[in-house]
Amino acid sequence: MPMRILIAMTLLIGSSAAFAATECTTADKSTWQDQEKFQAQLKEQGYKINKFKVTKGNCYEIYGFDKDGKKVEIYHDPVTGKAVKTEYHD
């Protein structure tokens, strides 16, 4: 196989992994926590939520600040409420 094709295939495979959505649950939406109550619980824990959304990977995703004032992006399992992925931003 020519080297160009190998390089192109490697780049395509690697780039698709980079764009893969964070997957939080496959559970039926009837088992998910209420969005308003979930956000209220996070606020009680000291989070400031600037944006809240449901992702394609079935996560509750928040953008905002944690209790220490650090800017965060957190993906939560909507059934358990557990953080699946946390990203800190400057």
Automatic annotation (TrEMBL):
Domain PepSY: 5-87
A Pfam family hit: PepSY_2
Span of the signal peptide: 1-20
Swiss-Prot/TrEMBL keywords: Signal
Name recorded for this polypeptide: Signal peptide protein
Taxonomic path: Bacteria, Pseudomonadati, Pseudomonadota, Gammaproteobacteria, Pseudomonadales
